[in-house]
Design goal:
The chain has helices at residues 7-25, 27-33, 52-58, 65-70, 95-106, 134-144, 153-157, 173-179, 196-207, 221-224, 228-232, 236-240, 273-276, 323-352, and strands at 41-46, 86-87, 113-118, 128-129, 132-133, 147-151, 186-189. By secondary structure, the chain is an alpha/beta fold.
Length: 353
């Protein structure tokens, strides 16, 4: 799943890091940019996270990360659209110098500050950044942010760190802000990891003044407005016919089936993975034989999304009969129908003769 670099891409990336290094050493340039009229400033914070969302963002294509960080500029600033003022994972600065860039981000022109958060928010003492508790840093930056984007399931809803049995009190960004009395909308972009398209397109949308329409969970309906099972899954016809695989990999090309029996949570998943796909839009979980685990949902990885490999109870039925029963009935009815049609055809031909 590595990023494919050509020699040209390598040189472009080194140029980009060279520009970043210049900005670090020339803080007066950065200070001047904080008052720029046409440049958007991004602060990217990491809470309880595995960094999978950052890796996912790096894998973005059409445009790829190199173009995003070197070629697509904002207004007359000449700077890239998504070069963060501060980002823990890929920021070239470190130590106290890196932390100073958060302060510079806070001084940026009003209505042009975006805060991106990955990872859940834990109780005091479990996560620190630059000698400061993550909770304090998030509370402080949230007050200055004009737009807050929670990227990935952990920051959107708590995710895996919030799963049953955890002792850290992990929670979502929205729940934390309510806890500390900060009333601000949060654009949630769940999935584990977050899909790079949803982040890049949301950033672009905000920058041109088009705020995404959100559902009741704060998710843009453009990405989370369709049901995987009902509307998008390419294996839905197998479900309707009662054809299922019973264990991962237990199928051959041309003999495939619905993933419901191996725990697919598509019926409760609001996501467009089947259309958007991953790894340069090549494939996604269900297409490679795994069940959908509904990582876009608020109760992931618990509730009705768990256990991942166990069949969901109470899947919708047709006239109170399970899908597999109707599938068998449909196959039988089709066979009988074909036989009747063939018999009628033969009788008609005999009469004509």
């Amino acid at each position: 799943m590595g990023l494919r670099f050509t020699r040209r891409d390598f040189l472009k990336s080194m140029t980009m890091f060279g520009v970043s290094a210049m900005l670090i050493n020339k803080t007066e340039i950065v200070k001047a940019l904080t008052q720029s009229k046409d440049y958007w400033h991004i602060c990217w914070l990491n809470g309880a996270t595995c960094s999978g969302c950052e890796v996912s963002f790096i894998q973005h294509t059409d445009p790829d990360l190199i173009d995003i960080l070197t070629s697509i500029t904002v207004g007359e600033s000449g700077l890239p659209i998504a070069l963060p003022d501060y980002m823990q994972v890929v920021h070239p600065a470190s130590g106290s110098l890196a932390m100073e860039f958060i302060d510079l981000w806070k001084e940026a022109k009003e209505k042009r500050r975006i805060l991106i958060v990955v990872g859940s928010v834990q109780n005091p003492g479990f996560c620190e950044i630059g000698g400061r508790d993550f909770r304090d840093l998030l509370k402080e930056t949230s007050k200055f942010a004009d737009y807050i984007i929670a990227f990935g399931s952990c920051s959107s809803f708590g995710g895996i760190p919030r799963a049953k049995g955890n002792v850290t009190g992990a929670k979502s960004v929205s729940d934390f802000l309510k806890e500390v009395g900060i009333v601000k909308p949060v654009i949630n972009l769940p999935r584990c990891p977050g899909h790079p398209d949803s982040l890049v397109l949301t950033l672009t949308s905000v920058m041109i003044g088009v705020i995404p329409v959100l559902d009741t969970y704060g998710r843009p309906i453009d990405f989370y407005g369709t049901n995987m099972h009902q509307e998008l899954c390419p294996y839905r016809p197998f479900y309707d016919r009662g054809i299922f695989i019973t264990k991962p990999g237990d199928y051959k090309p041309g003999e495939e089936g619905c993933r419901y029996k191996i725990g697919c949570k598509g019926p409760i998943a609001q996501t467009d993975c089947a259309l958007r796909k991953w790894n340069e839009h090549i494939s996604y979980c269900v297409e490679v034989g795994a069940p959908c685990i509904a990582c876009s949902e608020p109760n992931f990885p618990d509730g009705d999304t768990s256990p991942f490999w166990k069949e969901m109870p109470g899947l919708p039925t047709i006239l109170n009969a399970p899908a597999e029963v109707w599938g068998s009935a449909i196959v039988a009815a089709t066979t009988i129908g074909c036989a009747v049609h063939f018999a009628r055809k033969m009788i008609k031909e005999k009469k004509e003769r």
